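In response to reviewer comment 3 from the previous cycle, which asked for concrete evidence that the modeling workflow produces usable outputs, we include below a single protein chain processed end to end. The sequence was submitted unchanged, and the resulting C-alpha cells are shown without manual editing.
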Amino acid sequence: MKSTGMVRKIDQLGRITIPKELRKVLSLNIGDPMEIFVDGDRIITQKYNAQKACAITGEILDENKEYAEGLFLSPKGAEILLSKLQNKGRVN
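The workflow returned the following C-alpha cells.
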C-alpha cells in the first residue's frame, strides 16, 4: 500500500473528504458510486464496477473471471456454484 501523506479528519456526519488531487488521478467524479470494504482494521474504498461483480457472492476482485458473456464468478463463487451443481444430481 502506498502512503500519500494526506490526512483528513472525519466530520460530525462521519464523512471524509477525498482530496481533489486523488479524485483527479483516480478519475473519481461527483456522483460516482463507491464501494466500501473492510479488511481487518482497514477501510478500503474503490469505484464501484458492477460489471465484474461475482454473480454468486457479489465480490469484486481482480481474480474474477468471465465464464460466459456477462457472467463473472469469483474463485469462491465458482466453488459454490460447482458444489451446488454436483449436489443437484444426488438424492437425499
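The chain is about 20% helix and 20% strand. We consider this sufficient to address the reviewer's concern, and the full set will be provided in the supplementary archive.
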